[in-house]
Amino acid sequence: MISEKIKTLRKEKRMTLEALADAVGTSKQTIHRYESGAISNIPRDRIEALARALDTSPAELVGWEQRSELPPYSNIMPITKRSLPMLGGISCGQPVLAKEEHECFVSLIDAHLADFCLRAEGDSMEGAGIYDGDIVMIRAQSSVDNGAVAAVIINDEATLKRVYYYPDDQKLVLSPENNKYAPLVYIGDQLKDIKILGQAIAYQSRVR
Asked: Is there a catalytic annotation at residue 124?
C-alpha cells in the first residue's frame, strides 16, 4: 500500500514528518494521514512530489513496478540513488550553499528513467560524447529504434554501440562513434549470439 511505502521510505531516509511535509509543500498532519491510510486518494501531483522527496518513482511508490534483476556482467552495476545539495550561488570565492531544506536537494539519478548503469570502457563512443570511464544510464528493453545507443551483449561482454537492424536482410549493425573502429556486422544465425540489454538514456561524465 502507498501509505506503508511512504512511511518505510521516509524512515529509510531518516526524514521526520515535518521534513517530508516541507519537501512536498504540505503539513505534518497531512503526511501523517497519508501514512496512516486516512487519506488514500492522493492527487497525482502530490504523489510525484512525494516520489521526488523520497528518491523513488511515482510508479514504484504506488506499487506499479518492481525493480528489475540486473544481468550478471562485471561492468554493469545497480544505480545508487542519492541527492546532492543545490548551490544557491557561487562566487569567485567560496561557493554559497542554499538553505538546507529538502527542496534544495536534487536527485542525482531519475530512478523512473533508468534501470541500471554501465561504465564505458575505451574510446569507441567518443563521437557521441561518451568517454572512457563515463557512467551510462540504461533503460532495460530488448529492442531499440534504429540509431539508438544501446547496451549490447557480445561474447558475454556488455558493450555500448549505436544499433541498426535491417529485418529484411536479417542483419544487425553495431556502429561505434569513432572512425578508428569499423562497425560490427552480424547476419542470419549470428544474431542469436547478440542480446540487447537496453537503451542509453543519459550519462555522467567527469570534467575534462
From this structure: yes
**DSSP 8-state secondary structure symbol assigned to residue 2:** H
Which of 186, 151, 153 has the alpha carbon at shortest distance from 171? Answer: 186
Sheet holding 184-187, edge to edge: 76-77, 116-119, 135-140, 194-204, 149-154, 157-166, 171-175, 184-187
The CATH number of the domain covering residues in 2-61:
1.10.260.40
- For domain 116-204, which CATH number applies: 2.60.40.1120, 2.10.109.10, 3.40.30.10, 3.30.429.10? 2.10.109.10
Q: pTM here?
A: 0.54
Report residue 149 as a C-alpha cell: 545507443
**Identified catalytic residue from 5, 7, 57, 124:** 124
Catalytic one of 5, 7, 161, 175: 161
pLDDT in tens, 19-77: 999 999 999 999 999 999 898 888 888 888 998 899 887 777 876 554 555 666 666 66
- Does residue 151 contact residue 139 with C-beta atoms inside 8 Å? no
Q: Is there a catalytic annotation at residue 3?
A: no
| Domain extent listing, the chain | 2-61, 80-107, 116-204
What are the phi and psi torsion angles at 198 (to 5°)? Answer: 170, 175
